[in-house]
Amino acid sequence: MIFIAKIKTFLGRGHERTVRAKKNVILSVVYKGIGMLTGFLYFPLSLEYLGVAKFGLFLTLVSVLDWFAELDIGITNGLRNKLGAAIAEGDDEKARGYVSTACFALGSIFSGIAVIFVAVCFVLPWSDWLQAEPQLNQEIAILAALMFGALAINMVSAIIFQVFYALQRMAMVDFYNLLSKVLFLLVIVGLIYFTEDSLVLFGTAKALTFALVPLSVGIYYFRGELWRFRPSYRLVKMSLFQDLFSLGVQFFVIRLSMIVIHQTNNLLIAHFVSLDEVPKYEAAYKYLSIFLLLFIILTNQLWAATVEAYQKGDIEWVKNTLRSTMKIWVGTLVLSLLMIAVAPLVFDFWLQGKLKIEVAMTVSVAVSIAITTWVNMFNLVLNGTGKIRLQMYGWIFAGLMNIPISIFFANTLGMGSVGIVLGTVVSLVPTAILSPLQVRKILSGADRGLWAR
Q1: Which CA distances in Å does 424 have to 61, 135, 274, 290?
Q2: Which of 302, 285, 289 lies closest to 335, judged by CA?
Q3: Contact at 8 Å (CB) between 413 and 266?
Q4: Least enclosed by CB within 10 Å: which of 180, 225, 252, 432?
Q5: Three state DSSP letters for the chain
Q6: What was the pLDDT predicted at 15?
Q7: Exposed (0-12), middle (13-18) or buried (19+): which is 4, by Cβ within 10 Å?
Q8: What is the mean pLDDT of each run of 10 residues along the chain (453 residues)?
Q9: Dihedrals φ, ψ of 75, to 5°?
């Protein structure tokens, strides 16, 4: 009882914004922790069902389709900022207008792209691109069509998650993401017991959970508790689209660069090394992402809260929160070192000898995650202030450098898949220096010129 009382006291202490953040963080830790455990369970099950090569195909195709998610031209990120600002001002009508305009714009974009993509995907040489067996080309094409259709539905229906973020109810997003993972795991178990290995069935399971969960959540909340943000065609306005797009286009460029940096690794490994190496990279990343858990939760909360704090001129709160987040980042480095030390034992137990993951891969992935979280910690503060021009230039530079450097390390230096991961690390170094400098200038009121844009 004393312990519970102390927890309640801790949760209730501080600024209202801080109290809200603490409650969301604790709930998110629980949901993400269970979600991570679920991911650890379905990884070896997926290997068992599809085999190493087919699972590598699936992971590579998913990473390729992630590129198309950025065809929202930055609308979702622009929506998070503009919606958060409208809610902070108490203007629900404007907030609903932003939701309606974003929903209409994304629906128009992705319905058109989906029709074109599905029409051409059956004539594309998938097996050549992915270095797969020729007889798998038709199966890959069907999988691609299914996954892209699910992506189109998800992009529109997941607007409800942006509303949750703007309301600083991030834990709700984590809960429904957890629900998707649990449903996917249950379907995989069913596939193992009742069917033979099939990329199409596996992809259908992923597509259904990926699309239907946010769709159902959106319908439920927009018809109930969050009716005041429910999208309506009459509230769609070009002026609001320009608001979303003016900031969103910069987010769009940033996200495209991030896709080149983070989502091309699977494709580069598949093409320049082998498909069998893709699950090894994914396994190392999934394992080491444990030390990302609390950090991601805090930084997601930091964006939404920074929008509100910056709108209200509460710079001191932003400074204090950033200091606390930096301490946690240092803690994650210590945790990552411990995880690297015990990684061989964990991999043997978890994957039951199906994959052999070299220490060099584990270390390079850990370094990649560490520099990525360092950059994101400061960039999320910049996102909340809307001053992202310099950040955009840094990401563009990193995106242009990533693939050539990765190929140079992998082929010329003979480092294989490890070299591709290290290419990500090297390309992020300039951004890792510039972003902290800009945040420091903004929070001290010394930002001028490009530093203030």
Answers
A1: 20, 33, 19, 20
A2: 289
A3: no
A4: 225
A5: CHHHHHHHHHHHCCCHHHHHHHHHHHHHHHHHHHHHHHHHHHHHHHHHHHHHHHHHHHHHHHHHHHHHHHHHCCHHHHHHHHHHHHHHCCCHHHHHHHHHHHHHHHHHHHHHHHHHHHHHHHHCCHHHHCCCCHHHHHHHHHHHHHHHHHHHHHHHHCHHHHHHHHCCCHHHHHHHHHHHHHHHHHHHHHHHHHCCCCHHHHHHHHHHHHHHHHHHHHHHHHCCCCHHHCCCHHHCCHHHHHHHHHHHHHHHHHHHHHHHHHCCHHHHHHHHCCCCHHHHHHHHHHHHHHHHHHHHHHHHHHHHHHHHHHHCCCHHHHHHHHHHHHHHHHHHHHHHHHHHHHHHHHHHHHHCCCCCCCHHHHHHHHHHHHHHHHHHHHHHHHHHHCCCHHHHHHHHHHHHHHHHHHHHHHHHCCCHHHHHHHHHHHHHHHHHHHHHHHHHHHHCCCCCHHHHC
A6: 52
A7: exposed
A8: 46 55 72 82 86 83 70 69 78 85 85 83 79 80 86 86 82 88 90 85 86 91 89 81 66 74 80 85 84 65 63 74 80 87 90 86 92 84 76 86 91 90 91 88 78 74
A9: -65, -40
Gyration radius of the chain over CA positions: 22
Residues in the chain: 453
Q: What gap in Å lies between CA 67 and CA 63, rounded to an integer?
A: 7
| Cβ–Cβ < 8 Å for 350, 398 | no
Separation CA 135–CA 400 (nearest Å):
35
* 234, burial (CB in 10 Å: exposed 0-12, middle 13-18, buried 19+): exposed
